[in-house]
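Support reply, case 0932

Customer input (verbatim):
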Amino acid sequence: MQPTAAEVRSPTSDGLQEIVDDNGNSLGHVCQTLPAAKKVVGYRGPSNVALLLDEQLVVTEADLLFSDDTPDHVAAVERDEDFLYQFRGWTLGDSSTFTDVDATTGATLTALAIAEGIAVRLGGEKPSLRFPDDLNEEDLTAIYGPDHGQSLHVVNSVEAQVQNSDGQVVGRLIRTGPLVDSIAGYQGPNELLIATDMDDVVTSVRLRRTFDNEPYSGYLNEDDYFWKVFLERRLSELGGIDLVAEQIEGVSGATMTSLAVAETVVAAATEFQRRQQEQASQRQRRQVHWSPHDTGTVIALVLAIVIGTTRLRGVRWLQMLWLLILVGYFGLMTGNLISLAVLTGWAANGIAWKLAPGLFAVVAVSMLLPPLTKRNLYCTHICPHGAAQQLLRRLPVKSWKPRKKVLKYLTWMPGILLTAAVLVTLLHGAGNLSAWEPFSAWIWYVAGAGSIVFAVLTLAASVVIPMAYCRFGCPTGRLLDYLRHSARATRVTLADVVVVGLTLIAWSFAR
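Our regenerated output:
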């Protein structure tokens, strides 16, 4: 009969919550990827995943709790039964267990962001369940005495910076519990404090916590001679100490404890150096997720700039061919369209340029060209939804022209939608901005029925009202038009007043 969970205990300092049965026996642990992964964003925002770990801190289940990403992409990930299954076997604190992830087709950015968030949550130092207490003021006193005049700045669960009264870093303090907690003495493992100077030379080693009997462990901190072999050496040297060659002898009355402590020093120094090297290599290995469609996106951007800024834009056959390429490849294949959801999400949560380099390139080019070249090239030569409307203009259908009064009000609609989107973002509203525009439908293999219907309706409207959505419905296009340097740039307009007002609102929220 399998034991059932009776209680989920309060989280420890590292966010882990222990699951115990009716008898208080541990069944495993549970944690969430937020807030550790709050800077990992997809199209719009971060995702939160619940991770169930066994007693060895190996992931046995992963479940998506919620995501601030666009709903269609999140739904696609949730339908992909194999995606979250891939994280079984990943181990807290052991990045070597992190395997390559197969992203959900059509929701690659969302899936990669979820995987990256799980890697961030599990990629820190492996916590010690035996020695869970973070470094604190008592540890400073144990090393430097009661009148030390130092302060502690905790870096992570393993180390902290030691600062003098002027705030200058003069060394660091390391606790060995999260590094190694399985070397047993008489009755169990020991945790040590290792103090170093700025050159990583060890200045002091003390016993911090122990599972051994107090009389035995107390002998160690009273025997300064025992610790001398570890002092005045760099941390890198400690990992290579041969305890037999050094002729380390156990402290009288605590032989087993002292020899276990000596082994702990060497093992902890070795593990600390390994983690330092792994973190350095991980920083170097953090590469951009580049796909063939990212290459195609960059090529399309270059061609758009060439065609849109030269006389080539007047060549009719080339114009027709380019519109077909935008619709058939750039729209239906890459799906790298900018939208309110992307712009507001990245503005609020950070730019996912490593996970979506092609989309980032589109956003960068589209935002920079209007003020630099006086041209809104995204709307005229990049956007596939605009290209589709240009193709539909060629149909032999009589167009309808709204009355001047109606036309005036219709032209305000994109600006009103843009303003509302900014306010929703500032107020942290739950509005699905991807539903405000038809662009999600271009990723047709994951788009919801509502997105596709909306896109079809806007295209149908453009058959009788030329460029209907671009002229009367697109808030993203209105933003790019506002950025475009024009003859009215030196005059204060209603749009300028609205921008100043939104800026003041944003400033008030940021205070």
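We compared this against your earlier run and they match. Two observations from our side: The radius of gyration is 30 Å. The CA atoms of residues 497 and 503 lie 10 Å apart. Please reopen the case if you see a mismatch on your end.
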